[in-house]
Amino acid sequence: MLNTAFLIRRQDPGAWRTALGYGFGLLIGLGLSAAILVWVGVPPADLLQEFVIQTFMTSDGLAQTLTASAPLILVGLASAIAMRIRFWNIGIEGQMWMGAIAATWVALHHVGPEALRLPLGLIAAFCAGALFIWPWMWMKARFGVNEVITTLLSANIAFLLVQHLLFGLWRDPANGFPITVEFPPASQFSTLGWGQIHTGLVLALIIAVILYVLLERSPLGYIANAIGFNRRTAIQTGLPVAAVSMIVTLSSGGLAGLAGAVILSGTEHRLSQALSSGYLFSAIVIAYLARSRPFWVVFVALALAAVYTAGNVLKVFYGVSEAVIVLAQGTVLMSVLTANFFSTYVIHFPDRTQRDGEPT
């Protein structure tokens, strides 16, 4: 009887092998997604124009990409830091909703002086996101409840609360749609004079730098890595596992809540039902491709923002459906993940001449 092949994880894939894996996977994914788009009727000559030139090499396209990247950076960071300690935060969209609710409350009720209203809204959003993840963190620590289930279901609770507010107390009486009135200028980010780019992007980049220092250049990051590799061993060695886990998990929820506020105060300027659609998928993709490293989260978020920007152009000008855009995006993702898998693992085939019972 032949022995079954098995996987062996490389101890150190190396920077070159990892980079080649990402590059090869990206090329294959882009080729397959291009074939899909051509198949549905997009002219081949226009693909390069829309995905590269219009997205990165024109002023309007680059401005749209940078604007879209701000919340993606924040949700990517939220997912990445939770992954460091093996806490699977699948409730990012719910935390975004709660952060948006908190920011909207500050804006609509004119909380605090005008000069501090935007910072107060951002702080409230961060706190709301952190508080909304706290029960599920506590349930996992106290009773061992799987956080995948609790955080995922919590997103429905937050969305229903938003529905209640939009169809009730906060509904704009001058509008037939379930949206709030527009935020006052004091609760909006100031623009940077280039398209819709606002200071929320600067805030996201500053947070990424802070997290890079904390997770890559401080004891907090080393302890978080130890928890992620082996929580039980980290506890036995006397590391402050409970404290660091709480800080990281609450920060994950807080960053997701902050992302909701950045969307409202940066571009939407009002609360609606379409705030957080699709951000959970984006957050997980960014965190995984960036290997939970804040530095790379920024670049992956920027690349994903470019894909979304190009996808919106294809939908408007070429009539490509949302399903095809998602299929093309998913094809790129799966190709990169597959290539990354083979750069991380080796498939070992035992010697087929060995007889049963002999050691392999």
UniProtKB/TrEMBL annotation:
Which compartments does it reside in?
Answer: Cell membrane
The record gives the membrane topology as: Multi-pass membrane protein
Where are its TM segments located? Answer: 20-42, 62-82, 94-112, 118-136, 148-170, 197-215, 241-265, 271-289, 296-318, 324-347
Asked whether the keyword Flavoprotein is assigned, the reply is: no
Q: Give the UniProt keywords, A-Z.
A: Cell membrane, Membrane, Transmembrane, Transmembrane helix
The keyword Kinase is assigned to this record: no
Please give the InterPro entries that the UniProt record associates with this protein: ABC_transp_permease (IPR001851)
| Matching Pfam families | BPD_transp_2
* Full protein name: ABC transporter permease
Write down the species.
Rhizobium alvei
